[in-house]
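Fold Annotation — chain and its backbone

Encoding — discrete vocabulary of local shapes
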Amino acid sequence: MSKPITKLKDFREKRFLSQTELAVMAGVTQGTISKAENGEKVSLGSIKKIAKALKVKPGLLV
């Protein structure tokens, strides 16, 4: 199992977004957000989409 992307949850919660809201903004599924936050494998493309939606660099999420 990969290290959980706890920074992702921090960024999401600081913006008062639910996983579903962030998923819609990023164009990914809520399951993808959940997997990323729980350390499951997520594609680099998904990480880039999530980072763009949060207006942060992808490197800040990993």
The helical segments are 6-14, 19-26, 30-37, 44-54. Residues 14 and 27 are 20 Å apart (CA to CA). The chain has four helices and no strands. The radius of gyration is 10 Å.
